[in-house]
Design a protein that fits this description.
Layout lengths: L1 E4 L2 E4 L3 E2 L5 E2 L6 H7 L12 E4 L2 E4 L8 E2 L5 E2 L16 E4 L2 E4 L3 E2 L5 E2 L4 H8 L11 E4 L2 E4 L11 E2 L5 E2 L19 E4 L2 E4 L3 E2 L5 E2 L6 H9 L10 E4 L2 E4 L7 E2 L5 E2 L15 E4 L2 E4 L3 E2 L5 E2 L6 H8 L11 E4 L2 E4 L6 E2 L5 E2 L5 E2 L2 E2 L4 E4 L2 E4 L3 E2 L5 E2 L6
Antiparallel strand pairs: 1-2, 3-4, 5-6, 7-8, 9-10, 11-12, 13-14, 15-16, 17-18, 19-20, 21-22, 23-24, 25-26, 27-28, 29-30, 31-32, 33-34, 35-36, 37-38
Keywords: Disulfide bond, EGF-like domain, Glycoprotein, Repeat, Secreted, Signal
GO molecular function: integrin binding
Protein name: Integrin beta-like protein 1
């Protein structure tokens, strides 16, 4: 919507802003505009800017550009040290309000210097497998702070001087629904299961009385999935029991059907415009999309539609999708692309047991939105009622 002249935009008539991203007249209602400006907590422009025609204008009164992001969610003023007034005290870089310190420095604003050499720091934090804090923690001045996923325990699931013990390895996939380790048939020792008599398997999941071997049992439970019981159930002697118990939305011989995948964030099945069959929406005539969220009819002109599909940088659906009636439809060939403007990569979502969001939530723009009863970065912590 303009031309670049010596590093500054000269906007066409009807547009303004540093990148000519704001229209001077808006054809959106205030309600629709505000909806487009809400962050994941439903706060307009994260409370750090104003909404102008569906796009956030961040509050940078001094013109320093320290508040930024699609929803003004990043505030680099958080990185400024009170005493020196420098960003990260001059010993690190700031990204979205967090300091990432240079070697030898630590603290929220890189204000503390370590009293040991970088070589000694690395040596102390290196785990037996040669990784820094086993890739499960942060090294600060030679001591590992483990990324603990269970805040309720004395030390949680991840512990050890170099975070080498990960007791999540003792939890079979189905044990995400209870506190049992080693399928309830063994003792967990630093991520390894020591099974009781009569049980075998990496997680003590296999009865010795079963005529099938551990491998044969897992193969029967696996079917066409990458995990036994599709990562949604318990495998014993080649038979799957789907979880959560009593939830008829998860079913199938290998628990391959998960009808929760048909629900949007509000719990609506296929947007009320279709039926769910084994985790996939079959849409009524006149509707399409993964959740039947798109109407085939459109009362917009092509120009109006395209204007709503352009991201702040002026690219249509971030170059990763097509525009229909003012909404971006992301490329189905790239299943991981999502977001209002196809700007998100769902591969960035946390995984547990090899599953994105542990199968207990949906990935939304690189962050897991957990179903009711679940918590954790990867929705791996059960906080609901005990299952029988």
């Amino acid at each position: 919507h303009g031309k670049c002249d010596c590093g500054k935009c000269k906007c066409d008539e009807g547009w303004y802003g540093e990148a000519c991203q704001y229209p001077t007249t808006c054809d959106l209602t205030r309600k629709k505009s505000n909806e487009m400006c809400k962050n994941s907590q439903d706060i307009i422009c994260s409370g750090a800017g104003t909404c102008q025609c569906g796009r956030c204008k961040c509050a940078n009164s001094e013109g320093n550009g320290l508040v930024y992001g699609k929803f003004c969610e990043c505030d680099d003023r958080e990185c400024i040290d009170d005493e020196t007034e420098e960003i990260c005290t001059g010993h690190g870089k700031c990204y979205c309000g967090n300091c990432y310190c240079e070697a030898g420095w630590h603290g929220d604003k890189c204000e503390f210097q370590c009293d040991i050499t970088p070589w000694e720091i690395k040596k102390r934090c290196t785990s037996p497998d040669g990784k820094i804090c086993s890739n499960r923690g942060t090294c600060v001045c030679g001591e590992c702070t483990c990324h603990d996923v269970d805040p309720t325990g004395d030390w949680g699931d991840i512990h050890g001087d170099t975070c080498e013990c990960d007791e999540r390895n003792c939890k079979a996939v189905y044990d995400r629904y209870s506190d049992d380790f080693c399928s309830g048939h063994g003792q967990c020792n630093c991520g390894r299961c020591d099974c009781k008599e009569g049980w075998t398997g990496k997680k003590c999941e296999h009865p010795r009385s079963c005529p099938l071997s551990v491998e044969e049992s897992a193969k029967k439970c696996q079917g066409n999935s990458n995990l036994p019981c599709s990562g949604r159930g318990r495998c014993e002697c080649g038979q799957c029991t789907c979880f959560p118990p009593g939830d008829n939305r998860v079913y199938g011989k290998n628990c391959e059907c998960d009808d929760r995948q048909c629900e949007n964030a509000d719990g609506d099945v296929c947007g009320g415009h279709g039926v769910c069959s084994c985790g996939r929406c079959i849409c009524q005539d006149g509707w399409f999309g993964k959740l039947c969220q798109h109407s085939r009819k459109c009362n917009m002109t092509e120009e109006e539609s395209r204007s709503l599909c352009e991201s702040a940088d002026g690219i249509l659906c971030s170059g990763k999708g097509s525009c229909h009636c003012g909404k971006c439809i992301c490329s189905p060939q790239e299943w991981y692309i999502s977001g209002d403007f196809c700007e998100c990569d769902d591969r960035d979502c946390d995984k547990h047991d090899g599953l994105i969001c542990t199968g207990n939530g949906v990935c939304s723009c690189g962050n897991c939105e957990c179903w009711e009863g679940w918590n954790g970065n990867a929705c791996e912590i059960w906080l609901g009622r005990e299952y029988p």
